[in-house]
Design brief:
The protein is mostly helical. It has one domain. It contains 15 helices and four strands. The longest helix is centred in the N-terminal third of the chain and has 27 residues. The radius of gyration is 21 Å and the shape is globular.
């Protein structure tokens, strides 16, 4: 069984992306900049890894931390921020082959996902293959398919409990990485094998399953096992701190990714009976992606430029350190072709719009724009 064949229109504003690519290529040619990372990216990589690793070392060895419950909790919390930072700013670019022109570097840093409880080939299938290709296409984009607990698409079935999802979704965002670290990766591996998607990553099921089991054992042995052995906290307190770390990371990821797609401006395309979508692939990205807080430089630095989701979806192979500059080109070109360039001025504004979308999806069967 394979996923259905979906075809994007080739005569619906197809000139937009051709012109945009030419302009972006000219930008890099005229400035002499590489499309990949720079020294700032390397320094950020070191910082994010340290933000995750150093608190962990302190928890297991530094007496002043071990003798203080508040400091121990603070170290676990910092690990949560470091964990999210690694995912957003390092692993993400590397698995898009955007971090470096050297594929060895990309492969190595892409596998840093192992130390935060994930697996690289599953992530690339869900994110690169499905989400980036079929953005907001119900039934194909797994990012808008969280199961029956939440409704992220107007084409998904609405249950009575969804009336309250604008209140409880935030809690479930916090469980995101805990799910990955426990059962989700296994479910995805079996599903992707049935859908013949493992072939897109040149991996086979049995070796992938073995790798998945081994990496999970090593992850829990290190991140949970060592503190249980060396931290003076009780086993229950250590487990609670581990869960807190996971919750912080998952919550950060949720509030960064979801306000970029599950928002009122998205149009959620559905293919016709022949599998055709009435939009060029790049135009579909504009219809279903939104930026936020373009002026918040510190936020943009921490989240790996993913507040510029439009630029990321149009050019996933360009390192995020360039998004701010090329956003000017993207916006100008979109306006020239009378296409939307969705951007919320503040992060809070994006959260409010996402919350409104959750409310509407929980209360109305049809798309919010139609009720």
């Amino acid at each position: 069984m394979k996923i259905p064949v979906i075809k994007f229109s080739k005569d619906h504003n197809e000139e937009f992306y051709k012109v945009l690519k030419q302009r972006v290529n000219e930008y890099f040619k005229s400035t002499g900049k590489s499309r990949h990372g720079n020294l700032g990216m390397v320094l950020k990589t070191i910082f994010m890894i340290c933000l995750y690793v150093i608190p962990f070392v302190f928890i297991n060895s530094l007496e002043v931390v071990q003798n203080s419950l508040s400091l121990t909790i603070a170290m676990w919390a910092l690990m949560g921020f470091g964990m999210a930072g690694i995912g957003l700013s390092i692993m993400h670019d590397a698995n898009h082959n955007a971090y470096s022109k050297n594929m060895v570097v990309n492969n190595l840093l892409g596998r840093i996902i192992y130390i935060i409880g994930g697996i690289d080939y599953n992530w690339r299938i869900q994110h690169n293959v499905l989400h980036h290709t079929y953005t907001n296409v119900t039934g194909l984009d797994e990012d808008i398919d969280p199961g029956i607990l939440m409704r992220f698409s107007p084409h998904a079935k609405r249950y009575k409990a969804h009336r309250f999802q604008h209140l409880y979704a935030w809690f479930f965002y916090g469980l995101m990485t805990l799910s990955w670290a426990t059962n989700k990766d296994f479910k995805q591996l079996f599903r992707y094998s049935k859908l013949e998607l493992l072939e897109t990553q040149q991996v086979k099921f049995v070796p992938s399953l073995i790798m998945l089991i081994v990496t999970k054992i090593i992850y829990y042995a290190l991140i949970l096992g060592l503190p249980l052995m060396f931290s003076p906290l009780s086993w229950s307190a250590t487990i609670l701190c581990f869960l807190m770390m996971q919750f912080i990371c998952g919550f950060i990821l949720g509030i960064i990714f979801q306000p970029a797609h599950v928002v009122p401006s998205s149009n959620y395309p559905m293919p016709d009976d022949s599998g055709n979508i009435e939009a060029d692939w790049a135009v579909n990205q504009l219809y279903n992606t939104a930026n936020f807080a373009p002026g918040a430089r510190l936020l943009s630095w921490y989240v790996g430029g993913l507040n510029y989701q439009v630029e990321h979806h149009l050019f996933p192979n360009i390192c995020h350190v360039h998004y701010r500059e090329i956003s000017k080109i993207v916006k100008q070109t979109a306006e020239e072709y009378n296409l939307p360039y969705n951007s919320e001025k503040t992060f809070l504004g994006a959260i409010v719009k996402h919350s409104k979308m959750l409310y509407d999806l929980g209360h109305y069967d049809n798309a919010p724009a139609l009720h």
